[in-house]
Design a protein that fits this description.
The chain is an alpha/beta fold. The protein is 29% helix and 26% strand. The protein folds into two domains: 2-122 and 272-324, Medium-chain alcohol dehydrogenases, catalytic domain (Quinone Oxidoreductase, Chain A, domain 1, Alpha-Beta Complex), CATH 3.90.180.10; 140-263, Rossmann fold, CATH 3.40.50. Helix 2 (115-135) packs across helix 3. The longest helix has 21 residues, at 115-135. The relative contact order is 0.16.
């Protein structure tokens, strides 16, 4: 038996229980991993509340972790017990001391990256990779807008965009978060609760607007984000921390200049083993080179995952949060 955070029903943080669970021997194509660090992400909240449907209940939450392979199943020939690995994908189940996972969903972790750093950056960092490198490939000399610039994805994305030669405008919720965003590559910060976002962006871009907006906030910022875009600009909506975006009349996109809108997620860019490993390798390279620095994660014991969720939902955290089994 190992300890895990399991929910019997969806709801608030109070539905999360620290319980004993059984973990079987790995089947064909699987590994058993002993976690040393577990990443906490907003998508975990979506699953806990029922916004995103879980395959079944009861369920162990979590989609990101790092640790050591303790056993491999038949057909797994590129991993062995003792290997350090990390992952950021479904199915859920990372809020546990140990778990089973498909071998093609994990990546080897280089010696230059420690386990807590790996667990804190896999989902956020690979998200930044697909956003900046593939959904809308950022070019040197462009000015772009990144929402929640002081958040986990935001801090990595701002640094990475700067390394690509972009000028970064970032939205934040407080003066303290503005300072943090600027320390992580943001050239200009906007307090989106206090300032008119579109007016500020237009002023910073000589009235042109930006070619792309990366928006993880959702309901509270969606329409304002459209108003920040140039003609034929790209609205990349990849999260909804403020709630789901409601129905949008497509005529709005025409009226604002023939805009493009997409709602991607990491699985769309890491669906194959090769895509996953290429994405992770790009992330590891940019971190190892020093172009992107991953800040120290805030840590909680696994048993205190419910409090970690409360703090995350209250936006009382910045950067990454990691649970320690």
């Amino acid at each position: 038996m190992v300890k895990a955070i399991r929910i019997e029903k969806t709801g608030g943080p109070e539905v999360m229980a620290y319980v004993d669970v059984e973990v079987a021997a790995p089947g064909p194509g699987q590994i058993r991993i002993r976690h040393t660090a577990v990443g906490l992400n907003f998508i975990d909240v979506y699953f806990r509340t029922g916004l995103y449907a879980l395959p079944a209940l009861p369920a162990v939450l979590g989609m990101e972790g790092a640790g050591e392979v303790v056993a491999v199943g038949d057909g797994v020939d590129d991993l062995k017990p003792g290997d350090r690995v990390a992952y950021a994908s479904g199915p859920v189940g990372s809020y546990a001391e140990e778990r089973l996972i498909a071998a093609d969903r994990v990546v080897p972790v280089p010696d230059t990256i420690d386990d807590v750093t790996a667990a804190s950056m896999m989902l956020k960092g690979m998200t930044a990779q697909y956003l900046l490198r593939r959904t809308y490939p950022v070019q040197a000399g462009q000015t772009i807008l990144i929402h929640a610039a002081a958040g986990g994805v935001g801090q990595i994305a701002c640094q990475w965009a700067k390394a690509l030669g972009a000028t970064v405008i970032g939205t934040v919720g407080s003066a303290e978060k503005a300072e943090l965003a600027r320390a992580n590559g943001c050239d200009h910060t906007v307090l989106y609760r206090e300032e008119n976002l579109a007016e500020r962006v237009r002023a910073l871009t000589d009235g042109k607007g930006v070619p792309v907006v990366y928006d993880s906030v959702g309901k509270d910022t969606f329409m304002a984000s459209l108003d920040c875009l140039q003609t034929r600009g790209y609205m990349v909506s990849f999260g909804q921390s403020s709630g789901s975006v409601g129905p949008v009349d497509l005529v709005v996109l025409n009226q604002r200049g023939g805009l493009y809108v997409t709602r991607p997620s990491l699985i769309h860019y890491t669906g194959t083993k090769q895509e996953l490993r290429d994405t992770a390798r790009d992330l590891f390279d940019v971190v190892t080179s020093g172009k992107v620095k991953v800040g120290a994660a805030r840590t909680y014991p696994l048993a205190e995952a419910a409090q970690a969720h409360r703090d995350l939902e209250a936006r009382a955290t910045t950067g990454a949060t990691v649970l320690i089994p």
